[in-house]
Design goal:
heterodimer, A: mainly alpha, MetI-like fold, 2 strands, disordered N terminus, B: disordered N terminus
Chain lengths: 343, 354
């Protein structure tokens, strides 16, 4: 009897209620069923928590940056949008303070570009190697090691950039005179904190992201496409570069976007290695400040709650959140479409 | 997807008919190219470059660890592990960081694992493919990509300050001594744990979902056919089979949380502190002094990455070596937890064959 009763419980939406009542299999109350639906409700609430988190993030950022809860005034109710987007200085310490977001955006952009130049090709090539060339044994060794690279905390990358990359890699190359004692070589000034070292370590950091995502999309390209390429007389190189990568292109772009959004949101490594001085420059050898570094800078100081400098934090975080959210969303949608095509 | 290419003869992926045919014609042109040797040479170079990209990254990881060890040489002593931080670099220690990290991650796991696994069970086992489910799924994927510093701001506003709504401190008597509970939470372990729990929730959910997805449906069908309810099926059949995969995912998520610094900086965790949360002076006190134990979540704290960050910012150059020593401790902890995760994955997934 109980076996028969299970049927409506699992597929109740499909079965016609009136027929059920006639046959005596209609829904009847049991404690078991109450427990089941209670558990389902509880689990649903767990899933809903993620939506609540997003709403909470948006509420917190918007309430301090755009619409203040009276009597509090939000950042953009005190600072005009035109100043925020047209002014080229970020100087909260001035009186009156000047908030022009461009130096911070510029710093973030510089870090992201350097990281992309280093991380994206390396990650993609590593993915091609793992997906197309490596034997299963080699892959089973190389993949976990690459995942470890992603597991290294960002503060460690920051230390690596500040204490190893700048003094032992960038300085000797750009200022060989100082390092090797040769006078006639070139000498380019490098700041102790510089965007280049920050960009390099962030680039290293995103290699595993690019690699594992791209490898997944390369593997999803059907074998038939590769075989068609070989049948037409292509070499393995031709198949890789002209068949597999173009077919996986949208997935690879999604992986790139996700990695770039990670570089934009990267915080500790750039705070430590690239400095905390907002500068409107595209010189990778000078000290800069990214949006994330500004947030850290203000929050680790003792900025009183309610001041305009404190509120500027939320405005910067809002710009940061919207940037990464847009890139993540596009990337998710492209990936979802890509999976539909090949599955 | 595209009406013109829906003909069954087209073997190309329907998504990009133009590119694919271009590739095809180009390949045909190339096949008449007699310079096969040149193409093979390109192929060799390409394979070599790909090889270099992979193993170069591995070498960089090695270089990173080796330079840290080089910087920390002579500074990583047993005394370093059991001392409090001091103004004098030679006497500095990492004990409050180790203990703080332990409590913080313990609380984070207690908070995030049940919620994350619950959400994963709902999404994989119960939810129907409605618009709401799709939205939740997309939302989780996006939350996983939100910068950790944004979570830090959320944690600071919602837990440390509680939106500035309450300003009083409550003293609650538990009968085992007075437990000092402050509202808002302030810069305490519980604020940090709540923040990190929100941060690691999407990672836990995604990993648990993958583990649940790898359990074959036949197992569920067999259980349901024998008269088990849905929850009985999940609790007694699906969850035990998915457990190794889930544990791997959870351990990886927690080891990421161990290394998180930015959200803790944002909520204002201390970098320099000379006591452990709850003022526990020894391991045995955790069992003999329940009043101190109860105070742990509501006390200030520091973690290993926070101490590293503090030392990096110190002016004295000796502190850079102290920071490197702490980095080495952190890397060893992470290596152990990552190794554990990989071991569980390898060990248990071989045993279960479907």
């Amino acid at each position: 009897m109980s076996v028969v009763e299970q049927k409506p419980a699992s597929t109740d939406s499909v079965i016609d209620r009136t027929n059920l009542e006639a046959s005596g299999l209609a829904y009847r109350f049991t404690w078991q069923r109450l427990r089941e639906s209670f558990i389902q409700m509880l689990l649903f609430l767990c899933a809903l928590l993620s939506v609540l988190t997003t709403l909470a993030i948006i509420f917190v950022l918007v309430s301090e940056a755009i619409f203040g809860i009276p009597p509090e005034k939000a950042f953009f109710q005190e600072i005009s949008l035109s100043q925020f987007f047209l002014e080229t200085r970020w100087a909260p310490q001035y009186s009156p303070p000047v908030f022009g977001i461009w130096p911070l955006i510029c710093g973030t952009f510089l870090i992201t570009i350097i990281a992309a130049i280093i991380g994206l090709p390396t990650g993609l090539l590593a993915a091609v190697y793992l997906a197309e060339y490596a034997s299963p044994r080699v892959r089973s060794i190389a993949k976990p090691i690459l995942e470890l690279l992603a597991g290294v905390p960002t503060v460690v990358y920051g230390y690596f950039g500040l204490r190893i990359v700048t003094p032992y890699v960038i300085r000797p190359i750009l200022k060989p005179a100082e390092f090797f004692g040769v006078e006639w070589l070139w000498s380019i000034p490098v700041d102790g904190f510089n965007a280049l070292s920050g960009g390099i370590v962030v680039g290293l950091m995103i290699i595993p992201t690019v690699c594992s995502l791209s490898e997944d999309v390369l593997r999803a390209v059907p074998r038939t496409l590769r075989e068609a390429g070989y049948a037409l007389g292509s070499t393995k190189f031709d198949v890789c570069v002209r068949v597999v990568i173009p077919s996986a292109l949208s997935g690879i772009i999604a992986a790139f976007l996700l990695a770039i959004s990670r570089a934009v949101g990267e915080t500790m490594a750039v705070t430590i290695a690239a400095g905390q001085k907002p500068t409107l420059t595209l010189n990778p050898l000078s000290q800069i400040e990214t949006m994330t570094a500004y947030v850290v800078n203000v929050m680790s100081g003792d900025t009183p709650v309610g001041t305009i400098e404190y509120k500027s934090l939320y405005a910067v975080a809002l710009v940061l959140f919207l940037t990464t959210l847009t890139m993540n969303l596009i990337s998710q949608l492209v990936l979802a479409r890509y999976r539909e095509v090949y599955q | 997807m595209n009406p013109q290419t829906s003909a069954p003869t087209s073997a190309e992926p329907p998504q990009m008919p133009l590119e694919s045919t271009n590739v095809g014609t180009k390949l045909i042109e190339e096949s008449f190219d007699s310079e096969l040797a040149r193409r093979h040479r390109y192929g060799m170079i390409f394979e070599w470059v790909c090889w270099l990209a992979t193993w170069g990254s591995v070498v960089i990881l090695g270089v990173l660890i080796a330079t840290m060890a080089w910087q920390a040489m002579g500074w990583l002593t047993p005394k370093f592990l059991v001392s409090m931080p001091r103004r004098n670099p030679a006497d500095a220690g990492i004990l409050p960081g180790i203990v703080g990290t332990f409590w913080l991650i313990l609380l984070t796991a207690i908070l995030s694992v049940p919620l994350g696994v619950g959400a994963a069970i709902y999404l994989e086992e119960y939810s129907k493919p409605t618009l709401l489910t799709k939205f939740i799924q997309l939302n989780i994927a996006n939350l996983a990509g939100v910068p950790s510093i944004v979570y830090g701001i959320l944690g600071f506003t919602a837990f440390v300050r509680m939106f500035g709504l309450t300003k009083s401190e409550y003293l609650i008597n538990l009968g085992i001594g007075s437990l000092q509970l402050t509202l808002p939470f302030g810069r305490t372990v519980i604020s940090g744990a709540l923040t990190l729990a929100l941060l690691s929730l999407p990672v836990v959910i995604i990993a648990s979902q993958e583990a649940l997805r790898s359990v074959p449906p036949s197992l569920r069908h067999a259980s349901l056919a024998l008269g088990a309810t849905k929850w009985q099926t999940i609790w007694h059949q699906v969850l035990p089979s998915a457990l190794p995969g889930m544990m791997t995912g959870v351990i990886l998520a927690m080891s990421r949380a161990i290394g998180e610094t930015a959200p803790l900086v944002a909520i204002g965790a201390a970098t320099y502190i000379t006591f452990t949360p709850g003022r526990l002076n020894s391991v045995s006190e955790a069992f003999t002094r329940p009043d101190k134990l109860a105070q742990v979540p509501f006390d200030s704290f520091t973690t290993i990455p926070m101490q590293i960050y503090g030392w990096i910012n110190e002016a004295k150059p000796e502190f850079q070596h102290v920071a490197a020593a702490a980095i080495l401790v952190l890397l060893v902890i992470l290596l152990i937890s990552n190794g554990l995760a990989i071991f569980i994955r390898q060990h248990f997934q071989k045993k279960v064959r479907w």
